[in-house]
Amino acid sequence: MALATAPAVETITPPPLSAAEVKDHLSLIADMTLVFSASHSFDAVAKSALERVAKYVGAEASSFFMLDDQGQALVCTACYGPVDITGLRLPSTAGIVGRCVQSQEARIVRDVRKDADFGAVVDAKTGFVTKSILVAPLSVGRERLGAIEVINKNIGDNLFSESDLALLHTLSRAAALAIHNLRLTDKLVEQERERHELELAAEIQRDLLPQASPKEFPIHGINVPARAVSGDFYDILQRPDGRIWFNIADVSGKGMNAALLMAKTSSLFRCLAKSAEHPGQLLNAINNELCETNSHGMFVTMVGGLFDPTSGIVRLTNAGHEPPLLFDIMRESFMSIPADAPPLGIATGIAGPDGFPVIDVDLKGGSLYVFTDGLTEATTFGGGMLGLDGVRALIRDHAEESPDLRLKHIAGAVKLPGKPLRDDLTLIVVEDNGVRTDPPKPPGVPFDSTTGVILRVRVPGQADRLKLIRNAVTQAASFCSCDEAWTLDLVMAVDEACQNIIRHAYGGVEGAGDIVADFVRDGDSLSVFLMDFAPPVDPGKIKSRDINDVRPGGLGVHLIKSVTDDARFLPPPPGVGNLFKLTKRLPPKVDC
Amino acid sequence: MTFEVKDINGTTVVALTGDVDLQSSPAVRQQLLECLDKHKRLVVDLGAVSYIDSSGVASLVEAFQVSRKRAAYFALASVSPAAMRVLSLARLDKVFTIHADVNAAAAAQG
């Protein structure tokens, strides 16, 4: 109950306290400050603190109201008194407590009925009758945490005194500081936990990268993450036939979400590479899988390649990635290989029937560098971006070093001491030693006995001579004691390849040029070198189609691939338009 | 390559002999399409085919597609091993109706 003469609202200007008051107050404040600071959980001591304060000033009830994380609501986190209002939520501006939080002023309200801000909602709900309120803000610096309320003084004259208000204000500061410190501690613990989790994630991620390659291995890679975890990755995977899959990829974005997509994509690569024939097919399959589940607008740029160390040829598909650089150490020249497929994970149905476009790059003894934009966009000692010219200069500068050392030095050149990288940096190099264990036999050069030549035929490139070529295949196969079924398959492959020469290279024009076919016994295989004298054909334009699509035409390449062990264009020697080589392993126990 | 056209109980049978390749397949294609213009039932006898290439297979596929459009009957009969090898590589052995011999093909309903 408040006296009619008392002012309804008073703003604190603490009056001088008596010596006895100071002494009593000090002992309580010292006591409470100790309790707050020694506690690991504010909520645990809040209730008993509220009880002590209420009893000390002779009040009926008391409560802590804390701002929620959004600062939108005040929530009662602890209370003392006849009714339990713990968990009660009020808008952050509601009532006398809301006014205190907003204004950051401690106040005495001696008669709540005369205070326009008093909300009787709580009383209506609980049946409690609020008469007078003492309220002080909880804040540290400019940070508002909430407020502490003491309600209904019921000793003496039943009026809260200035001395009560000064005490509450002091205690509220000690409490606020304690809450603030505990929150900071919680944050530090949480940060430490996250750091530990990141470390574990980074460790797992490092395990996803391939082991360091042996010195003499043709492909080497390096990955330097900008943060604990990386959105980049690379992989190297040797096939049983000696050819080597490799890839390098950059996931859009950084941090944990990029790292998770990286883990998924690298697993897809490893898994799908085992059944893919060429990188265009492989990257298309990865794209389809990513599109099925990737819904956060993230995507992956990737270069996938299949390197044949015996021929020095890399079959390459570039899905929206930085163009790889082919370095010719003899000429000190670079060739850039641009992207011709879109990044992965954006849309399906964009690839042709045989997947994404594939380009065959003959390394000719050179080195192919594939890297992420973490290298080109890295900051150099001078402060600028490294750029492609900078990358070329670094490659040139370190060209004489061993591949693993070279990669370390190139990556080290842009990793400034004590400064994190701007982006993850990944770099691989594919080295061609230039030694051809399976060199194409150049036509025009007489074959000697060691090359194993069986037969050479030269016929005009027209349809009515195909039978002669088929006969030649049969004769060569018969010479190698091959059975009928084996022979039919090779006949078919050579016939289809010659049809492509007649129809595509010579454009179906009779008398446009000849076809030369060399049949060569090549270890345990029979190879057929087909040469024409037409302008070079873009191998990408002669493609297999989806075999499930029943329509006339487009079957030839599928048949060739189905029945041979290898079929590919080779760089033609001077004077020859196109050189196509088909290889088929001889049936077992055959003696030429 | 030669071909012979005969009629077995209302079914037109085209029997191909020899190599069906880039040189001969245009004639095969023309012959099959002409037969489908005139007749509702066509059987191609591949028993004497020593070799068939992708262009020959394309002629068969085209005739097959025309026959479906016109609801005509189209089947292959007594397919030689050489021809069967190509059809199975092209996965067309599951697409075409294939009978062991010409008489069975001519007698089949479809």
What does the secondary structure layout of this molecule look like, with pairings?
The complex is a heterodimer of chains A (592) and B (110).
Chain A: E1 9-11, H1 19-38, H2 42-57, E2 59-67, E3 73-80, E4 89-91, H3 95-103, E5 107-109, H4 121-126, E6 133-140, E7 143-153, H5 162-208, E8 219-224, E9 232-238, E10 244-251, H6 255-273, H7 279-293, E11 300-308, E12 313-319, E13 325-328, E14 333-336, E15 359-362, E16 367-371, H8 373-376, H9 387-397, H10 403-414, E17 425-431, E18 453-460, H11 466-479, H12 484-505, E19 514-522, E20 525-532, H13 556-563, E21 566-570, E22 578-585
Antiparallel strand pairs in A: 1-5, 2-3, 2-7, 3-4, 5-6, 6-7, 8-17, 9-10, 10-11, 11-12, 12-15, 13-14, 13-16, 16-17, 18-19, 19-20, 20-22, 21-22
Chain B: E1 2-8, E2 11-20, H1 25-38, E3 41-52, H2 54-69, E4 73-77, H3 81-89, E5 98-99, H4 102-107
Overview of this structure, please?
Chain A is an alpha+beta fold. Chain A contains 13 helices and 22 strands. Chain A has helices at 19-38, 42-57, 95-103, 121-126, 162-208, 255-273, 279-293, 373-376, 387-397, 403-414, 466-479, 484-505, 556-563; strands at residues 9-11, 59-67, 73-80, 89-91, 107-109, 133-140, 143-153, 219-224, 232-238, 244-251, 300-308, 313-319, 325-328, 333-336, 359-362, 367-371, 425-431, 453-460, 514-522, 525-532, 566-570, 578-585. In chain A, strand 11 and strand 12 (313-319) form a beta hairpin. The radius of gyration of chain B is 12 Å and the shape is globular. Chain B starts with a strand and ends with a helix. The longest helix of chain B is centred in the middle third of the chain and has 16 residues, at 54-69. Chain B has helices at residues 25-38, 54-69, 81-89, 102-107, and strands at residues 2-8, 11-20, 41-52, 73-77, 98-99. The mean pLDDT of chain B is 93. With 110 residues, chain B is an alpha/beta fold. Chain B has a single domain (2-107), classed as 2-Layer Sandwich (Transcription Regulator spoIIAA). Chain B has a five-stranded mixed sheet with strand order 1-2-3-4-5. In chain B, strand 2, helix 1 and strand 3 form a beta-alpha-beta unit. The chains are: A alpha+beta (592), B alpha/beta (110). Chains A and B meet through helix 11, helix 12 and helix 13 of A and helix 2 and helix 3 of B.
